[in-house]
Write a structure and sequence with these properties.
mainly alpha; rod-shaped
Length: 91
């Protein structure tokens, strides 16, 4: 960058960012709209993360409900089992 090289080339050589990002950065530099391109990249990845979180939440939610239901059932059984045992002793 200091020697006048565009930002997109070192990003592409580093192989840290996907090719889409490096292409969009290069196009943003060429058109003079780097800030707009970076905002578009940020919006794209934000939407991607939101979709991943939403799908993960939809998978985890039923599992958590079953876990909480099992825990409540275990507590109820642990409370009533001694009462039933005491009733058998009284008979």
């Amino acid at each position: 960058v200091r020697s006048g090289e565009p930002i997109g080339r070192p990003l592409g050589r580093a192989a840290v960012f996907p090719p889409m990002v490096t292409h969009m950065v290069s196009i943003g530099e060429e058109t003079g709209a780097l800030d707009a391109m970076l905002n578009k990249i940020a919006d794209f990845y934000e939407d991607e993360v939101d979709a991943a979180v939403k799908s993960l939440t939809s998978i985890i939610e039923p599992i958590m409900m079953m876990f909480v239901g099992g825990l409540v059932g275990l507590i109820v059984i642990s409370m009533y089992l001694p009462m039933f045992n005491m009733m058998n002793l009284v008979k």
